[in-house]
Amino acid sequence: MDAMAQDSGLRGTEYAADCRANIADATTLTWTLILLGVVVVLGSVIIMAVIRAGQANRATTPAVPTIAAQIEDLARLRDKGLVTPEEFEWKRQELLRRN
Length: 99
What we know:
Helices cover 84% and strands 0% of the residues. By secondary structure, it is mainly α. The protein has helices at residues 2-7, 12-60, 67-80, 85-98. The protein has four helices and no strands. α3 packs antiparallel against α4 (85-98).
């Protein structure tokens, strides 16, 4: 029907104006969706970088041995003869006082 209206000269200028308006609306919507997609992708990249940085920091942070683990290590040194029983007891008491 629109093609017939154009051919007969009826509403020709209105039809062209409507087409231009529809194309402009579609173009605006398309660019908006493209921009939204770019923002989502960049946001995802930033979030993943932050997560990876946090995991890297945790992996490089040495674990602090517990007092019990330190006393066990001292006991092994004492059993091997590298630490005297007096040194072991003194260090054990010192570790227990810290807690």
